[in-house]
Structure formats: C-alpha cells, structure tokens
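Sharing a chain and its predicted structure for anyone who wants a worked example. Both blocks are below, sequence first, tokens second.
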Amino acid sequence: MAGSSAFTLFVTLIRGKCVALLLGPSGVGLMGMLGSFNGSLSSLAGWGLGTSGVRSISTVPPEQRPAREAAVRLLGRRLAWIGLGCVVVAVAPVCWNSFGSFDKLHVVLLSGMAVPFVILTAGWSVILQSAGHLRSLALNSIAGATAGLMIGIPFIYWLGLPGVAFSVVAAAIAPAVCSWWSARKYRPPLSVEPDSRALREMIRMGGALMLVGLFSQLSGYLVRLALIKNLNVDAAGHIDAELGLAAAGQYNAAFSIAGSLPSFVFAAMASDFYPRVAAAPDELTAVKIVETQVIVGLLLGVPALGALLALGEFAIHIFFSREFDPAISVMNWMVWGVFLRLVSWPYGYHMIARGSSSLIVTVEGIASLVLGGLPFLLIPHLGLIGSGVSYCLCYLIYCGLMVGVLWRRTRKFPDVKIMASVLLAALALSACQIASQPFASRPWLAVIPVFILTLGCAGAYFLALKKLKT
C-alpha cells in the first residue's frame, strides 16, 4: 500500500501543480473548498461504511462473511443515493455561506456529483480490504489516480475555474469504476441474503464513525472559511472574494505537501493496521500492536518530515510556484502537526476499533472543534500563519486526548520506550530543521542533514527488525 500511496501522492501533487500554473492561488483555493464540501457530505452520507464494514467482516469466521459482504453492498448503494440527495439540499446554502453569492453555484453543484461515487468506492474497497486483497486496492488506487488526472486536467485547461469541478468529479469516478471492477470477482452472489444483524450493527456503529469523519471534514472546511472571511480585504479596504480564495489556496498548498508526504504511513494504518487492532483478542495485545505502529510510523515518516522542514521553499516552488511563497511558513508549522499525527493516530485507530461510540464521538468532536475554531481566533491576529499554528496546536491537544483515552481503557500510560522514542524523534527533527536553515537558498546543501536523519532512521529500523527476529 505504501507504493500506491506514494504514487497517488505524486498524482495529487501533479494535479495541484497544474491548477497552480493555470489558475494561481485562487484556483487552488477553490479546489480545496470543493474538496472540503464533498468530503463533508461524503462523511455524512457515507455513515462510516469504510470502517464499520471492515470491522463487521473481519471479526467473523470465513463462512459468515458472504452474508456480511452482501450487507455492505446493500448499504453502500443506499448511502450513495442519500449522498446525492444531500448534495442537492446543501449546495445553495453552502455556496452562499462560502462565497457570499450564487456565482459559483453551478461549480459547487457539479463537483458534488462526486459524492455518491466516493461512497460507492468505500463500499467496494471494504470487500477487498476485509478479504486481504491489498494488492488489488493498491492497483485500484494507482489506476484511479492516473485516470482522474488524465481526464480532469484538460477540463481545467479548457474551462478555467469551472473546470476544477469536472476535475473533482473525474477524480471520484475513476477509482469507483476501478474498485467495482476488482471487487466483482470477490463479492458474494446476488442470491446471498444480506445479514440483517450485521446491517443493524453497521448502521448503529456508523453513526459514531460518521460524526468522526464529518467533524474532521467540517474542521477543514471551517479553516478555509476562516481564511476566506478574514483575509478578503484589499489594500484600499474593499472586500474581494478572490483574495480570500487565494489565501485558502496558500493554505491548501501547504496542507497538500505537509499532509500528503507521510500519507503512505496513514494509508498503511487504514488498510492493514486497523483490521489487526480490531481483531486483537484483548486490550494488551491491541496496545502492543499500536505501540509497534507508532515506532514504525516515526521511522518511516520522520525522514519525510525532515525533508519538508529543510527543503520547504524548494518543495513549494517545485510542486506549485513562486506565487505560493506565503505558504512556506504555514507548512513549517503544519509539519510539526503531522509529526504529532504520526504519534497520535495509531492510538486514534485503537480507539475507533475497540472503543465505545460515545467515547469516539466525544474525543473526535473536541479535536475537531479545536481544529475548526482555533483559526477564527488566530487568523485575525496572526494572518495566514495562524492557520498553520492552529493545525499544530490541535494535534498537540489530540495527543493529550489519546493519552487520556488510553488511561481510561487500560489504566496505563504510553510505554516509557514509546515516549523516549517520540522525544528522540522530535529532537532529531528539530536538529535537522536548525541545521538546514543556513542553507535555505541552497537546497543541495540542505540535503545533508536530511540524509543524516534518514540514515539514523534506517539504522534504527533495521536494528528493530533484527531484535524482533532474535
């Protein structure tokens, strides 16, 4: 999955580069707003299917799986239609609230057509993932990303800003078709009756998971909304909506790079790590799996984060353009937020896999409230950089919440070795950032501390593997 995630990341950055060159920061900002709109409705209508379906199927013996897979298939179809209805209902108020007019109503409506395809993709992917067909998932990801890029970019070139909506829809349809084509070989026959008990379980659990996903997506939308509403005044004091979109574009550029480079680690968590935690026989075994994932995540992700801190300006210029220089300082703060995500997310998956619905909703609701609310407090005072600071502070708070959840469920704090590893990784990352600062204008020299950091992580990784074998 790491290879497919890296390829998908590459395609995402290429799409962002094309939009940046053709439409500038405002085009990137519009793409981010449309993505937040679709993500929110996909989370709302998707009802946590991608997670509840895997949990429902992976925790039963093989002979019971066909009926549960049929239940996932049935629920996925119904949720896709609900998603389409949500788009029709929400498009007008969201357009007015985001842009202050209905000028972009057709763009938002068209992009919303991606929502049912996102839900269908989740349903088909559940069948592949729960059966362990990770290779098929990886190939689908690669094929879908490539097709979406090849179809979507010409629309942006021909149509300008409205073409962004076509690009968003193409990026959703392509993986849906690929997932359906792969899953059709493994899905149960149509004659198999869906497991009604499993259906009720997924609906009951899906409510909590839906709220978790919705909180996350809405917080991203609120950050961009805070930028559009607070940074939309020109030098003469006149309100200009394009300035707000451009500010959101700067944020989106920073988030695209800082949030995407370690994405192969998060993708591996979702596809392989989560089912193992859900299927663990007891809490102690599950916690050991989580702790191992924290170490692996740090060893894989820290070199990438070090590269971002050392080569941030170079990365922004390569993947976007010099118009996006304001995004560099935002990205530096975000990198530290992503570091905290590497530490906290394995515990978050543990909570989702084994915790109660009320606990999940409470913790994720608090975190999303912080992530969505802090920008409204910080951006008016700090400007664009306030969005990066709020991102970092949110995940610092999230780490504290995960420690509390772990104590509540196991009456234990994170292992001393885990805390020492996190501290060591943070010190190494800080040293890399400080050592590379004198070489900001000479990226070929800034590579040196990144190379040293990578060697250290690689050495620690192989030592850990050797220890496990003995």
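Comments welcome. Residues 351 and 442 are 44 Å apart (CA to CA).
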